[in-house]
C-alpha cells in the first residue's frame, strides 16, 4: 500500500526532452534503443537512483521523473541534470543528444513521427484510432508535469481551487513555443494551442482546459469524469481508456496516487529553470491554499470559462499579456489593482512569497530580466528564420541543457 502524503508533503516532477541529431537537430526516434541500452532489450523504463527514464507516445521523446514523491525540490535540479548527462553519454554512439523547449521548431509530425512500439500499445493504438496521434499536439510537444499531494476532500478542495487560479498565468511564465514548422505564428505558446484542440472530436476530454470548480472526489467524478467516459464510450467499446488519466484538462486529479497533476507548463531550457519554475508555482499555490493571499471563498467563485479567457491571453502574448480582470487580481492578493502585466504578477509572487535565499531565484533571474524562453527565442530568430538559423538556435538550446544554464 502506498503511503499517504498530506497536502504539499509530496511532489512529483516530470520533465520531457527531445532526442535530436547532433548535426541537423532533426528529431531522432530512438528512445527505445536508448532504454534498451540502459536497461536491457525490450525495456520501456530505466530507474537510475532517484530518477526514472521512460517514454510514453512519441519515440523521439524521453521523460525523466523522480521515482518517489519528494518532500522538497531543493536537490532535484542536480538530480535531473545528472540524468541528462548520462543520457547524452548514451546517445553519443547514435550521434544524437537531448534538446529542450516545448516544441521542435521545424519538425513535420505527419512525416517524422514514430509512435512508441511496445508498452501500453493497446492504449496508444486506441488513442491513435480515435484522434490520429500524428499531429503537433500529440507527437511534437514537451512539457513539465508537476504533481502535488493531498490526502482528503478538504485538502483536495483547497488545492484544486488554488491550482485553478494559477493555471491561466502559467504561459506568462513558461511559454517556450513561438515557432511551428519553421515560422513564428505570432503566438507565444503554440504547444497549448495544439493542446486545446487535439481532442476536439470529443470536447469533454479537454473541456475548457481550466477544470470546472469542484470541491470533492464525488463531485469531480460526477461533473468531470463520468460525462467524459460516456462521451468516449462509443469509440472505446473495450473500455481501454475509461480511467482518470483520460482527462486532458490543464490540471487533473490523480486519485490513484492522491495528487493533482499540473500540465500547462512548457519545458524550459534546463533543469535549473524547470525546477525553479516549479518551485515558484508550488509556493504560490501553497500561499493560496493556506489563505495567505486571499480567502478560499474569494478563490472558489471563478468559472472555468472566465479563467479560460485569461489563459487565452497568456497563450497569445506570454509574458507581455495584460490581465484586466480586477476580481481575479484581487483574488491573487493584488488589492486595489485593476490591470497588471502577467510577468509582473509572477515577479511579485517571487518577491513576496519566496524567501530571499530560496534556490529558485537563480533559475528565475534570466526569465524575469529578459522574458519567457519564447520571447528570448524570438529575439534571436526573428519572425522569418531560416532552417540554418533554427538549427543554430537548437544547438544553443542543447548546450543550455547540457550545461544546466539559462538561455540568455
What does it look like?
The chain has 408 residues and is α+β, with helices and mostly antiparallel strands. The protein has one domain (11-403): Creatine Kinase, Chain A, domain 2 (2-Layer Sandwich), CATH 3.30.590.20. Helices cover 44% and strands 14% of the residues. The chain has 17 helices and twelve strands. The protein has helices spanning 31-39, 76-91, 109-112, 121-131, 136-139, 153-166, 170-174, 190-197, 217-232, 271-289, 296-299, 304-317, 326-331, 342-353, 360-370, 373-381, 387-403; strands spanning 11-21, 45-48, 51-54, 61-66, 96-99, 143-149, 179-180, 183-184, 251-254, 259-266, 322-323, 340-341. Strands 1, 2, 3, 4, 5, 6, 9 and 10 form an eight-stranded antiparallel sheet that branches. Strands 7-8 form a two-stranded antiparallel sheet. The longest helix is centred in the last third of the chain and has 19 residues, at 271-289. The protein is globular and about 55 Å long.
Amino acid at each position: 500500500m502506498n503511503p499517504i502524503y498530506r497536502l504539499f508533503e509530496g511532489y512529483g516532477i516530470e520533465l520531457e526532452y527531445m532526442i535530436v541529431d547532433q548535426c541537423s537537430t532533426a528529431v531522432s526516434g530512438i528512445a527505445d534503443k536508448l532504454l534498451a541500452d540502459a536497461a536491457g532489450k525490450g525495456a520501456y523504463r530505466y530507474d537510475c537512483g532517484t530518477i526514472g527514464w521512460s517514454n510514453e507516445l512519441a519515440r523521439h521523446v524521453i521523460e525523466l521523473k523522480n521515482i518517489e514523491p519528494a518532500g522538497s525540490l531543493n536537490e532535484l535540479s542536480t538530480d535531473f541534470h545528472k540524468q541528462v548527462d548520462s543520457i547524452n553519454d548514451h546517445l553519443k554512439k547514435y550521434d544524437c543528444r537531448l534538446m529542450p523547449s516545448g516544441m521542435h521548431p521545424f519538425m513535420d509530425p505527419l512525416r517524422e513521427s514514430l509512435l512508441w512500439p511496445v508498452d501500453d500499445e493497446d492504449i496508444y493504438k486506441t488513442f491513435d484510432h480515435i484522434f490520429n496521434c500524428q499531429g503537433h499536439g500529440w507527437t511534437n510537444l514537451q512539457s513539465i508535469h508537476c504533481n502535488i499531494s493531498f490526502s482528503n476532500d478538504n485538502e483536495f478542495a483547497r488545492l484544486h481551487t488554488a491550482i485553478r487560479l494559477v493555471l491561466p498565468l502559467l504561459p506568462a511564465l513558461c511559454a517556450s513555443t513561438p515557432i511551428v514548422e519553421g515560422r513564428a505564428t505570432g503566438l507565444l505558446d503554440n504547444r497549448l494551442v495544439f493542446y486545446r484542440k487535439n481532442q476536439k472530436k470529443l470536447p469533454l476530454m479537454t473541456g475548457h482546459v481550466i477544470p470546472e470548480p469542484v470541491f470533492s472526489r464525488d463531485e469531480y467524478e460526477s461533473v468531470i469524469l463520468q460525462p467524459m467516459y460516456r462521451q468516449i464510450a462509443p469509440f472505446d467499446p473495450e473500455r481501454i481508456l475509461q480511467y482518470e488519466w483520460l482527462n486532458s484538462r490543464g490540471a487533473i486529479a490523480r486519485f490513484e496516487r492522491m495528487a493533482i497533476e499540473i500540465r500547462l507548463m512548457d519545458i524550459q531550457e534546463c533543469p535549473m529553470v524547470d525546477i525553479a519554475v516549479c518551485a515558484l508555482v508550488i509556493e504560490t499555490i501553497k500561499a493560496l491554499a493556506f489563505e495567505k493571499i486571499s480567502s478560499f471563498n474569494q478563490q472558489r467563485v471563478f468559472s472555468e470559462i472566465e479563467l479560460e479567457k485569461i489563459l487565452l491571453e497568456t497563450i497569445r502574448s506570454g509574458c507581455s499579456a495584460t490581465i484586466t480582470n480586477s476580481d481575479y487580481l484581487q483574488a491573487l492578493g493584488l488589492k486595489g489593482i485593476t490591470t497588471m502585466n502577467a510577468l509582473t504578477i509572477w515577479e511579485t509572487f517571487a518577491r513576496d512569497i519566496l524567501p530571499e535565499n530560496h534556490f529558485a531565484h537563480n533559475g528565475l533571474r534570466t526569465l524575469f530580466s529578459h522574458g519567457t524562453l519564447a520571447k528570448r527565442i524570438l529575439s534571436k530568430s526573428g519572425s522569418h528564420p531560416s532552417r540554418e538559423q533554427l538549427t543554430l538556435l537548437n544547438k544553443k538550446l542543447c548546450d543550455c541543457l547540457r550545461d544546466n544554464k539559462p538561455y540568455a
